[in-house]
Write a structure and sequence with these properties.
alpha+beta, signal, Cell envelope biogenesis protein LolA, LolA/LolB/LppX
Amino acid sequence: MRKIIILLTLCLTLGVAFAQNFNQAQALKEISAAAASIKTMQCDFAQTKSLKMLGDKMVSRGQMWCEQPNMLRWQYNTPYTYTFILNNNKVTVKKGNHSDVIDVNKNKMFKEIARIMMNSVLGKVLTDKADFKSSVIHKSNYYIVTLIPQKKEMKQMFTSILLHYDTKLKLVTKVEMHEKNGDSTLIELKNIKKNTPINASQFKIN
């Protein structure tokens, strides 16, 4: 469940742009509008997990592909292999040689996750107060959106989620997730490509 929530959070970052003339309310509206113009996105990522109790950090790397309105592939390559694929109402979770296929219409938890994923891809999540309370600040070359979970399931996991937008690229480059237990996760997106064709095989459900 924790890995799925991390994947969900990453969906919040897909293709979102930001206005140069900073005004918090207007900026959130323009983020949503800009996101709708992005049909596909793909990138590499590095994920650093900081464990409070152990004082340790774990780094993993992989790739992400997304195509509106309802297809996503999130793939860890090192130090382990793990893949999450969403294609319409079907989800495949692969770990090593084992895979499970889930029909989101028959699973309440996955249906909710899929709903938030789609709202995120479409840019609706930042203005949907039922899911998150949003605020924006301007710092150096970034706009930083802080999301405070409003629903019970997310509040049990996270205290806050921070999305960092590069004002030059007008795309997210970092996501910070702060958990209730004091752990945190930093995801850095690199080599981002938007609106380029993606082979349909990337979203194939086995």
